[in-house]
Design a protein that fits this description.
single chain; about 400 residues; alpha/beta; Nucleotidyltransferase, domain 5; 8-stranded mixed β-sheet; 6-stranded mixed β-sheet; 14 helices; 14 strands
């Protein structure tokens, strides 16, 4: 079964075409990215499993045109991998927010699309482009089932006492204000891979999965289910991120808005675009730049110290609610590549049975154990693969429909 995975951002479309079956020889046929949609300099990147690479600039005013271009390239007589769009059997869409309604992936129909649209109020930067991608694919491939895979779904098992905020309860009832959590597809994938690496039943493991990219979220997973996660009502809550503040005293917002005469839109920009790593360091939102500058720059070193300190606090808190710990997983751009950040996070956690091995910790972008022989807790680096999880859910749902 050929499955197209579509991940629409505000100005991008990431895509992968995968061949899926009941065996384990699933493979990526082609993948790429259209970026700068609606912005001058739009570009398509395309690569196949036969090492064909293609890159070209063209005006791309919207997501529909971007997806038309993707299909055009994939069906090109010279560099394409399929002859006709009808060879795409199903489409799996990343949808950021499913609210309380969707706690599992689902076949998209008019009612589902209506509910996803209603959730746009909770994710105004993410759900609208997700919807644009769905509508474009419905028009381009009308016979292919469309499946929605939600970032929030994995966290649907978080108990009420962990997701309710201590504000008047009526705001939860009226507006759905609660902890939702994000990166769920990534956390679910690496938790499953961790169980396989450890040769353990996932329903008997207690894990902390650390998704550390430009966005950062940690999740406590008990017996295969998410029981708490660091991101909350929006992806702004939690740990220090590339440009997002993470946890802070909410009164700071009111104080700054009064002192600086800021509008809510300006405050939103500060919290989401000008804070976090870039806000503390004043250098960059990329931790690679911060690590390079740290030896001679106090604010750069301070940024790294804060990242590690906040991470230790979450690991300690999640250890407490899990009651014990079998493993910690590091994933995404920083988690998969920064040996320094992994090391500084784990240092000082030896009383919890967490001990990192200096030599094993040099690993990058591949699955590996990085704990010392003395460590009670397994420490793992696992590259995330959200596209595969979306394809797998799509395959399983469509397969069930055909029975």
């Amino acid at each position: 079964m050929n499955i197209l995975v579509v991940n629409c951002g505000s100005s991008t479309v990431k895509y992968e075409l995968l061949s899926m079956n009941d065996n384990t020889d699933n493979q990526v046929i082609a993948k790429g990215l259209v970026e700068r949609i609606g912005i001058p300099g739009s570009r398509l990147e395309y690569k196949t499993n036969h090492q064909v690479s293609y890159s070209k600039e063209r005006e791309v005013p919207n997501h529909r045109i971007a997806l038309e271009w993707i299909i055009e390239v994939m069906t090109d007589p010279e560099i394409g991998v399929i002859k006709d769009p009808s060879e795409i059997d199903a489409v799996g869409h990343r949808v950021v927010h499913g609210g309380e309604k969707f706690t599992a992936s689902i076949l998209i129909d008019d009612e589902v699309l209506k509910t996803i649209r209603a959730c746009s109020e909770l994710a105004p930067l993410h759900n609208p482009p997700n919807i644009s991608g769905i509508e474009a694919c419905q028009a381009l491939m009308p016979k292919a089932p469309q499946i929605a895979v939600f970032d929030t779904a994995f966290h649907g098992t978080i108990p009420e006492y962990a997701y309710i905020y201590a504000i008047p309860y009526e705001y939860y009832e009226k507006f759905g204000i609660r902890r939702y959590g994000f990166h769920g597809t990534s956390h679910r994938y690496v938790a499953g891979r961790a169980a396989k690496m450890m040769d353990k039943d996932p329903s008997k493991l207690r894990l902390i999965t650390c998704h550390m990219g430009s966005g950062v979220s940690f999740t406590a997973i008990k017996n295969g289910k998410s029981i708490d996660t660091s991101m909350g009502f929006t992806p702004l809550e939690g740990l220090v991120m590339g440009t997002r503040s993470g946890d802070l005293d909410p009164y700071i917002l009111l104080y700054l808005m009064e002192k600086e005469n800021l509008s809510t839109k300006e405050m939103d920009q500060i919290l989401n675009k000008k804070s976090g790593v870039v806000g503390i360091s004043g250098i960059s939102s990329d931790t690679r730049d911060i690590e390079a500058a740290a030896p001679t720059n106090h604010r750069a070193q301070l940024t790294l110290d804060i990242i590690a300190y906040r991470a230790k606090k979450y690991i300690g808190a999640y250890y407490a609610i899990l009651g014990d710990l079998d493993g910690i997983v590091f994933t995404a751009g920083i988690g998969e590549n920064s040996s320094y950040i992994r090391k500084t996070i784990c240092e000082g956690l030896e009383p919890l049975g967490i001990s990192i091995d200096k030599d094993k910790n040099t690993v990058r972008r591949r699955e590996a154990f990085i704990n010392s022989e003395q460590s009670k807790v397994k420490l793992m680096v696992i590259p995330t693969n959200e596209e595969f999880m979306i394809a797998l859910d799509t395959y399983q749902l469509v397969h069930d429909l055909e029975r």
